[in-house]
DNA sequence: CCTCCTCCTGATGTCAACATTCGGACAACT
DNA sequence: AGTTGTCCGAATGTTGACATCAGGAGGAGG
């Protein structure tokens, strides 16, 4: 996840399986509501059910899937209520992350943010895949949380990160032009404020940034699913 | 939790194991830093290693234990940095939960809060176990999150709830008299503000409530563990 | 005496088979 | 016809055995 230190931490098959399934969900190969059967996944991924099970538990922690007692695991739906919940929480988390990062971020993190904005600008100018722009968007906020250096805060962010990723992908489908036009400028402003801005202004802008995303997504959603 | 329908949700052995181990940690039978060996727990609880493993994963999601690749699972330490992280995040979450609950809470939740304050007052007057007072403290905030009705927000709260429980137990050890004296009044004020208070005042008081707890805990901790 | 290498021990990671449970199909009953 | 009770299939929950790995004890070499 764009960490500074690759750390080479050896991961188990459970993490591997979680990554594969997560990628499949974000790619749309598992549409919202799809059932994720353990035996099926185990056979397809070439690992045991135990590992798949552990990987699915991880995705459940990320909020990408939901499961119940003897009721299997399914991909979450994207209802207006879900979007509302995630974005309201994200606004509070982003506000805290931004104000904290404003205090403690070092130059390395700040320049990394500038670099990401530059990449976003290049990507938005071209007409490439929208997926890549969304990935850069998420990576930008990953950096802010990393800069804040609060492990629990980062964990809370990671608990909604994947859901947000899924939502943002729908957002570009719904409002592609609008998204491309504003995404670069909004992030550039955030990067500037993080380097040398008033804390209160930064807090307000961080919340507004989320609110902007929420509204543009809700506009393209069915009102009552 | 206090839903109209008890739902009688049947739980698996993993949940059972997680509950047992969590209780043991909060009781002090597993002190901070203690190693939680899977085979040992499995034998002692009378279940298989797989179930214990899944239960430990759940406790890891709650932040009560930490684990690494082939490095086992250990109870978290209580360092000043950990306390700082949890309370800073909690302040942001509590602020959001309180302001949301102020808008959407129904009478049932509000009267439940009053009832909890009354119980706390009765408990603080007597000289019973401090554990019970802390449990009521946590339950009070559980109610606020339930009243807010945001599932993701509640999940974020539950990710630090058990750690907070652990910290608060240390807090009463460190500053027992101070805690008893203030805990009832602070919660009573929060309950009042939730029923009919200015939102901005409520938000400020919610953050101050957390800050008060943080400082009184940090005061009784070793400076550099 | 210190350093490095090797091996060993105890633990976790992984697996495939067994037991339990949910949900719907089907039929009997009212 | 609508409802209730029963049965069956398929998926999950659980288990014990096997494979793999981290960390330290011990000894050879410097």
TrEMBL record, chains A, B:
Residues 11-78 form the HTH gntR-type domain. Transmembrane segments: none annotated. The keyword Transcription regulation applies. Pfam families: FCD (PF07729), GntR (PF00392). The keyword Transcription regulation applies. This is GntR family transcriptional regulator. It comes from the Bacteria. It comes from Streptomyces griseoaurantiacus. GO terms for molecular function: DNA binding; DNA-binding transcription factor activity. Keywords: DNA-binding, Transcription, Transcription regulation. CDD domains: WHTH_GntR. InterPro entries: GntR_C, TF_FadR/GntR_C, Tscrpt_reg_HTH_GntR, WH-like_DNA-bd_sf, WH_DNA-bd_sf.
């Amino acid at each position: 996840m764009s960490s500074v230190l690759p750390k080479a931490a050896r991961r188990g098959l459970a993490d591997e399986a979680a990554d594969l399934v997560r990628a499949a969900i974000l790619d749309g190969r598992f549409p919202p509501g799809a059932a994720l059967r353990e035996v099926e996944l185990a056979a397809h991924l070439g690992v045991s059910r135990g590992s798949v099970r552990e990987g699915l538990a991880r995705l459940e922690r990320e909020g990408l899937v939901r499961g119940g007692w003897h009721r299997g695991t399914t991909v979450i739906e994207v209802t207006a209520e879900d979007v509302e919940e995630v974005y309201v929480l994200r606004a509070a988390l982003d506000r805290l992350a931004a104000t904290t990062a404003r205090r403690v971020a070092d130059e390395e993190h700040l320049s990394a943010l500038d670099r990401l904005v530059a990449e976003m600008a290049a990507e938005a100018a071209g007409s490439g895949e929208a997926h890549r722009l969304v990935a850069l968007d998420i990576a930008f906020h990953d950096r802010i949380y990393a800069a804040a250096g609060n492990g629990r805060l980062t964990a809370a962010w990671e608990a909604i990160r994947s859901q947000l990723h899924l939502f943002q992908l729908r957002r570009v489908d719904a409002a592609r032009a609008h998204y491309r036009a504003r995404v670069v400028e909004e992030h550039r402003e955030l990067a500037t404020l993080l380097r040398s801005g008033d804390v209160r202004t930064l807090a307000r802008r961080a919340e507004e940034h989320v609110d902007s995303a929420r509204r543009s997504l809700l506009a393209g959603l069915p009102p009552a699913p």
